[in-house]
């Protein structure tokens, strides 16, 4: 596409603001909306940060929606392991996120927890919301599954996001190295095959997840005394 065509395709609101200096107030609408993806293994504080970010934006008088999928509470709610919680909209596969947001009066931002479990189409919808509706989207999730293979939605976020940020809030492997990858543990052994999404760490489940460093994820060594809670 030529530069000329690109210029013609730009809607009015994208025109650069000319009367601006370092000291003038930033006119509303002058800043492009952003798509940001925060990723890390479980327990790295993703949901806690999602809740904190929602609180901060809300205090500034901005209006947002909070979305999640397969949260550990089992309901449409974001819960963090340190005990915070918030009602959220459950993102089922058939949910059109553009329609969801445009059905509301005015939305300034979206908090998308567990975005790794959304469909790829829904990630495209998030990018549309940023580019065509000027809505800031803050997505949180795992990058890779229990095999250390990237989730399709996470991959699309890596490809499309304005900013990608790895969260590393002191999650350590049993050996003391930084915990980078989630392992799925079934019956005390690290699983290498199976469905990409299996909810574990619930009372009824024989599946649990453990954060490991890359070395021990690849070797399958779960450490001493870590194969208890099933
Ligand atoms: Zn390790």
UniProtKB/TrEMBL annotation:
It holds the Pfam family TK. Keywords: ATP-binding, DNA synthesis, Kinase, Nucleotide-binding, Transferase. One of its GO terms (molecular function) is kinase activity. It catalyses: thymidine + ATP = dTMP + ADP + H(+). Transmembrane segments: none annotated. The keyword Kinase applies. Its EC number is 2.7.1.21. Belongs to the thymidine kinase family. This is Thymidine kinase. The keyword Ubl conjugation does not apply. InterPro entries: P-loop_NTPase, Thymidine_kinase. PANTHER family: THYMIDINE KINASE, THYMIDINE KINASE, CYTOSOLIC. NCBIfam families: PRK04296.1-2. It comes from the Bacteria.
């Amino acid at each position: 596409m030529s530069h000329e065509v690109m210029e013609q395709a730009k809607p009015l609101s994208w025109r650069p603001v000319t009367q601006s200096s370092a000291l003038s107030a930033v006119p509303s609408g002058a800043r492009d909306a952003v798509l940001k993806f925060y990723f890390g293994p479980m327990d790295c504080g993703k949901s806690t940060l999602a809740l904190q970010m929602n609180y901060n934006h809300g205090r500034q008088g901005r209006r947002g929606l909070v979305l999640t999928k397969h949260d550990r509470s089992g309901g449409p709610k974001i819960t963090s392991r340190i005990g915070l919680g918030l009602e959220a909209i459950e993102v089922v596969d058939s949910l059109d996120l553009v329609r969801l947001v445009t059905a509301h009066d005015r939305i300034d931002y979206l908090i998308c927890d567990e975005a790794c479990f959304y469909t790829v189409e829904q990630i495209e919808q998030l990018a549309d919301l940023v580019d065509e509706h000027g809505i800031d989207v803050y997505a949180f999730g795992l990058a890779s599954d229990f095999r250390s293979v990237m989730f399709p939605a996470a991959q699309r976020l890596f490809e499309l996001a304005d900013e990608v940020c790895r969260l590393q809030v002191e999650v350590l492997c049993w050996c003391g190295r930084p915990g980078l990858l989630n392992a799925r543990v079934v019956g005390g052994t690290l699983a290498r095959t199976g469905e990409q999404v299996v909810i574990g760490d619930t009372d009824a489940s024989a599946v649990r997840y453990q954060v490991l460093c890359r070395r021990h994820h690849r070797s399958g060594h779960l450490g001493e005394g870590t194969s208890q809670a099933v």
